[in-house]
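Customer ticket, subject: "Can you confirm the structure for Secondary thiamine-phosphate synthase enzyme?"

Message body: Hello, I'm evaluating your service for our small team and ran a test protein. I'd like someone to confirm that this is what the system normally returns, since I don't have a reference to compare against.
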Amino acid sequence: MAEFTIETYDRNAVVDITRQVNAHIPATVRSGVCHVFCPHTTAGLTVNENADPNVKIDIMAKLAAMIPHEESYYRHNEGNSDAHLKATLVGMSLTLPVREGRLALGTWQGVYFCEFDGPRTRHVQVCWQDADY
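Agent reply: Thanks for trying us out. I re-ran your input and got the following:
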């Protein structure tokens, strides 16, 4: 297993981490699966389009409209209930195929870390299973 750190600079952000995940897959893993996990309750992971930056903006705008930050809605009194709900919807782990030592993503796909309660220092864990093992 490997781990890397992400620094976020805004309360809400979508950060492309495809390169970091690929960098942590050993070259010896020719085919198999890669598990990516976010050990935080107010952040998540997703796979989505990485060609048009407006997709990230649209995702965050729709989540904000569906789950507003306004504190009067929530019983949790830390001021970040919306972040917990957004992270639950997005999810905290991914299982992705590996081919020729890299993530086998679609042409337009990227792996994204979604920050909902920043700015913060975050961690992402990566582990893999070689299909030839």
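A couple of notes from the result: The domain at 2-130 is CATH 2.60.120.460 (Jelly Rolls). The chain has a mean pLDDT of 94. Feel free to reply with more questions.
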